[in-house]
Amino acid sequence: MSETPASRINGDEIISEILHNAQVGQFRLRYTTLLPCRFNVYLQPADYELISPVAEVIRREAKQALTEHLESLNKVRRQPQLMQRLGIGKPGDSPKYKIQETDWSIDFHPAEDDRLRPGEIEIYSDLGTAQTPDFGSGAKTTFVTRRAEGENSGRSEKTGAVARPPVLATLRYSNGGGEKVFAITKEEIVVGRGGKAVWVDLKVEGLPDISREHCRIRHDTASGRFFLKDLSQFGTAVDGATVPPSIDRSGGGAVDRNLEVPLPATANIALADVLVMHFEARQTE
Fold first, then answer.
1. Is the pTM value of this prediction over 0.85?
2. pLDDT tens per residue across span 7-38
3. C-alpha–C-alpha distance, residues 26 and 66, integer Å
């Protein structure tokens, strides 16, 4: 029996859920409201295979829709402006909507462990890497869309802001103008350029010598210490000392030997001699 059209996903539905996620994931300050700008979209494996040939088109149109949404949020009506000039309105009533990165980032992934059924979408978003430590990992939201099978397909939604975990350490660096701060809130993060099939936590763009998956930083819960693993082609150094590569490419393949080096509480991490990140562990009580 052939699959009913109601159980198949399409690009417009994906874009609609990305827009919804951007709306519910807003992080408001006094004068500014930040929107999520990095989206990781998880699909049931068969749906992922279905959209893979047109993923770039969906990504491009989703970015256009997000930009139009951001512009519409910043359209200030004359009446609130007049009220503020008369001293009636509050300065924080009409915040400026913006994103912290220079562009939107949208990546698609097949879901694992059969947690999604055909037609379901799970989206994780965050505020981006250009954040201050006070933001933690950003206003991370999860949005799940479920459609029942059959002609009378429905949708149930679960949306919410995930409580921000404590900051374990920070990475400070300059790339593309201005200092950026990445807050490490997970037990392990991946740093690199990333790619369609390569997920990274800290995405460094515009530097080709940096590998798609350049290095991993791991926090050992028992000891509280940090460790670094080099996965790159052009090397990683800590405080000027070259880190032994964990990937053995001598046999023509790529075998991970799981080699790590300890990270001091404060250290300078050089990626391929083209970018230096200052690592600083947070003091724990």
1. no
2. 578 999 899 889 988 888 888 888 888 898 98
3. 13
